Amino acid sequence: MLYRGSKIIKGSGKGIAVATGSETEYGKILEQTWEQENTYRFQFFNKNSLFPVALLLPPFVVQMALSHHPILLILLYLFLSAALMLMQNDDFFRYLLISDEVKKYERYQIQIRDISAIEALNQIDVICFDKTGVLTTREMEVKNLYYADGMPHAANTANNNTLSYLVKTACALCNDVQFYEKLEQANAIDKTLISFAGKNGIDIKELLQSERIYHRPFESENKYMACGYKLKDLGVYYFAKGDPDVVLGMCNRYLSAAGGKKADSDFRHFTYNTISSVNQRGNTAIALAYVSGVFNEPPKQYTFLSILELENPLQHGARETISKITEKRIRSIMLTGDKAETAINISKECGITKGSGYLIGRVIDRMALDEVARQSDHCSVFARLLPSQKGIIIRLFQQRGHHVAMIGDGPNDGIALRVADIGISFHKNSSPIARRLAKILINELPDLLRLMEGAKRIKRSAKYSKLSRALILTAVLLVLYFRAASIIGFKI
Description:
By secondary structure, this protein is of the alpha/beta class. It is 45% helix and 18% strand. The protein has helices at residues 25-31, 50-66, 70-87, 90-107, 116-120, 162-173, 188-199, 204-207, 244-249, 265-280, 318-327, 340-350, 361-365, 369-376, 387-399, 414-419, 432-437, 447-491, and strands at 111-112, 126-129, 141-146, 152-154, 211-216, 224-231, 235-242, 251-256, 259-262, 284-292, 302-311, 331-335, 359-360, 381-383, 404-407, 422-426, 440-442.
């Protein structure tokens, strides 16, 4: 039995679906009542509001002693006492202010799942961001192609030679998608490569009708995948795709515009320099290779085709949001499971850090927690983190007196969203776990600034409201005491 939410790490297979949606075990878990404060709790009357009631008593006692209508005065006293007690209830008026602000958020489709989180925003001094899906989009794009001739080629450059055609064919076929109708099920990298091939003249639907004769799925241990096809009018071709270091180790030749050549030291030097420069820019490098002909067993030696540089663009408004947060003297931190080079590049691009310092998960595992906490005062980028390590880092910030918000969208952000003072996720493109654990759901990153402005308005309005109510209370008491004094003076 394979349960929804399970992670398949290798292989392929067929099965019979016995449950879907909420009927799956995963769906039942998501439908359970999770611990979540959805209401703002307050008491209409509290001990602090008894003081003005006591101050009301002397003038009313004087008036009742000299009045012919004591019952009416008693009722008036009770009414004024209740009104003044309510006026001194800060929680009640804060609730009114927050409810009004929540209605404003609803106009922008911002969902507040715990309205006490709005007030807590005023205390936040550290905001932790996941990278992919939060600071960058999940959709990747091919930025450059690097052939063995040593020159980068723009992704949108039209080229119809054999080398270019084989690169585009490899992009379209070397993946786990065997049917055109299943394209949406491809992973992010495969979607990017298939899209690239389609935009550059390849008929994806027709090409996928080719007979697949060999398939080796991607394995995290081997870091590459391979497939073989009988291509119409071309014969049998095998393609390999994956980590450049691995794929290059499988290649004894390379193909250039001038034809095939034996891989030599110059070729190796060029390719490794290319990989290094792509990594330094924080982008993803994917290598492609091919071999043609009929083999009794899967080929072990390939001909190098190209290195593709894939880029995750920044989310709309990411740079501006980080800038505005910094102006508010709130510190931004990146917590990601991605590689350090990519994390540093993105953090510099969006303004989280200007330096190149970072900590990675396996180093943190060997450090004492107090040392990690000390380093966190100076380090703003944490990469190659396990989900639990994200939560540990947030706890360390909290133990040092910080109030932390976490913005994440994946199931690996669940622990961090839960332990943070405020967990924030997105309506769309977020995992069900992230949406359930988040106290606030937004549409895009700039909504964070709208939330913070609203929280500041509540704080400012609450301050003015408290001052106004204090003035009203003072005025009422002065009037009553003046009235009592006048009565006593008149009778005397």
